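Before the break, one more example. Copy the sequence into your notebook; we will annotate it together after we see the structure.
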Amino acid sequence: MHRSLSILGYGVLVLAATASWSVQAQSSGIPPLQTQGNVKYVCGGIGSRQSTAFREAMRNHPLSLMFVNRRGEFLAAVAVNIKNDAGVGVLSIPSSGGPICLIDLAPGRYSVTAEPQGKAAQTRVVGVGTRNSSLEFSFP
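Here is what the structure looks like once it is written out:
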C-alpha cells in the first residue's frame, strides 16, 4: 500500500508541475507556436498585454515582423509569404492573429512579402542568422 501511495503522489507532483508550466506559458500572453513545413511561427499582439509580451519575445526568434499603417496603428489582417534565396516558398500565412509575427527560420536569406487587405503588397529581403532580424511594414 505504501508503494501505491508513492506512485500516486509522484503522479500528482508531475501533474502539478505540468499545470504550473502551462499557466506560466499562458500568462506570457503568447499563444503556442504553429508549424508550417520546417518553420515555426506565431502571430498576435492584440491588446496591450499581448502586444507587450510579443515585443519582449522578439529577441527570442530569428525573425519578427510588425505591421502598421502610416499613423503607427497596428494592422492585423496581413497576408505573409516568405521565400528562401532559391525562390522556394517556406511560409504562407495570414497574420490574422495580430500585427506581430514571430518566426523561427533557419539561417539564410529570405524574401518577405506582406499584403494587407485592400492595399498593395510590399516585399523586403532579409538575412536571418546569428542575430535576430526584425522588419516593420508600414502601409498607407
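The chain has two domains: 1-29, 31-139. Residues 2-27 have pLDDT under 50 and may be disordered. Try to locate both features in your own notes.
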